[in-house]
Write a structure and sequence with these properties.
With 368 residues, this protein is an alpha+beta fold. 58% of the residues lie in helices and 15% in strands. It is built from 12 helices and 8 strands. Strands 4-3-2-1-5 form a 5-stranded antiparallel beta sheet. The protein has a 3-stranded antiparallel beta sheet with strand order 6-8-7, with helices on one face. Strand 2 and strand 3 form a beta hairpin. It starts with a helix and ends in a 9-residue tail after the last helix.
């Protein structure tokens, strides 16, 4: 009877105690979140309840399994397995806690600062720092797991002795990976590009959606995703429309007839912009910038507070101006001038009938 009750008490007690502690901790975090709703820390910490319970259960089982007298032949293997589970769940819990603290700090910073550019820069740095912390915790956890095996402990001395040679070989083999890694850190702390920035890369216009230590994702205006190595942004030029102030100036071109009413177009441009909510009211202008034998090039300058609004202003001005010209001044639209062909004057001498007949005589078949 004791052989049956002992394992049930040890295993069942460990699981029950884990569930009870986990439930009590979750209740405390929920009450703390309800009492202090200004910070998301307690709600974020509740996401770590699964690794927290795994840590508790593995620790309790690891400490009390010897008393269970269950599967004594496999006691070493089961104990090592519980140790591995404990290390892995502890690493998982550390990452969750670190993520909660970092996310809470960023939320407070975002509420305290109204500068969108600075907030995006901090967001980029926070995400990259979190990735570095996660990578370090995972590496330490894996190393700790390996050190639980006696064979790995014996091999550790030889690995450390040859660390210099391995470092050189790894550096040569992973040169591109390391360059991307350092480029990611340079982007994070050099303020070159941030999450949410509007960029133009290889002729593609889009918004930076994700930055990691090795690659960067740009979401284009048509919902495509362009993934590029971060080293590209440290070695090649690109346009960052969000750096500095987000205000922008846009250009709209028309190709019209020489008789186009330019002064009336200036007044119409002013009316169109006054009715366009995306125009920020800073400036506008309309000039004739070029001419050809058939058309003139008319350019309008408009302003907006950011890249999205400047696109809206440009398409609205282009469409409404063409509609107005078609309805009110159709002669201003480009056209192809055509007329009847006029033959040059040609005087024919007065030949005799025989020479005139030879001039217009065509080859014939048969008798003519």
């Amino acid at each position: 009877m004791e052989n049956v009750l002992r394992p049930l008490i040890v295993l069942g007690g460990s699981v029950a105690l884990t569930l009870a502690i986990g439930w009590a901790t979750d209740r405390l975090l929920r009450k703390a979140d309800e009492g202090d709703s200004d910070t998301p820390l307690w709600q974020l910490l509740r996401r770590g309840r699964i690794p927290y319970q795994l840590v508790l259960c593995a620790a309790l089982l690891r400490g009390s399994y010897d008393q269970a007298k269950l599967l004594e032949r496999h006691q070493v293997g089961i104990g090592r397995t519980l140790t591995l589970v404990l290390i892995g769940s502890a690493a998982w819990l550390v990452i969750r806690i670190a993520a909660a603290i970092v996310e809470t700090s960023y939320s407070r910073y975002a509420r305290a600062h109204r500068d969108a550019a600075r907030v995006r820069r901090v967001r980029t740095q926070v995400e990259l720092i979190m990735r570095v912390v996660s990578a370090i915790v995972i590496v330490v956890a894996i190393a700790s797991m390996l050190l639980t095996f006696p064979a790995m402990r014996a091999a550790g001395a030889s690995l450390l002795a040859s660390a210099g040679i391995l470092g050189i070989v790894a550096g040569v083999a992973a040169q591109s990976t390391l360059s991307n890694l350092f480029a990611g850190l340079q982007i994070a702390f050099g303020d070159m590009v941030r999450i949410g920035d509007t960029v133009v890369v290889d002729g593609e216009w889009g918004t930076v959606e994700e930055i990691t230590l090795t690659f960067l994702t740009v979401r284009t205006w048509d919902e495509r995703r362009i993934t590029m190595p971060v080293s590209y942004f440290t070695s090649k030029p690109f346009e960052n429309w969000s750096r500095g102030t987000p205000q922008m100036t846009g250009i709209v071109f028309w190709y019209l007839d020489h008789s186009a009413p330019v002064e009336a177009m200036r007044e119409k441009l002013r009316d169109i912009l006054r009715e366009c909510p995306a125009w920020d009211g800073r400036a506008y202008g309309l000039q004739v910038t070029d001419t050809t034998p058939n058309t003139i090039q008319v350019r309008a300058l408009v302003t907006a507070k950011d890249a999205d609004d400047i696109w809206t202003v440009r398409v609205a001005v282009r469409e409404r101006m063409i509609t107005w010209l078609s309805a009110e001044h159709p002669y201003a639209l480009p056209r192809v001038n055509t007329s009847d062909a006029v033959l040059p004057p040609y005087r024919v001498p007065s030949p005799d009938r025989s020479s005139l007949r030879k001039a217009y005589d065509f080859p014939r078949t048969g008798r003519g």
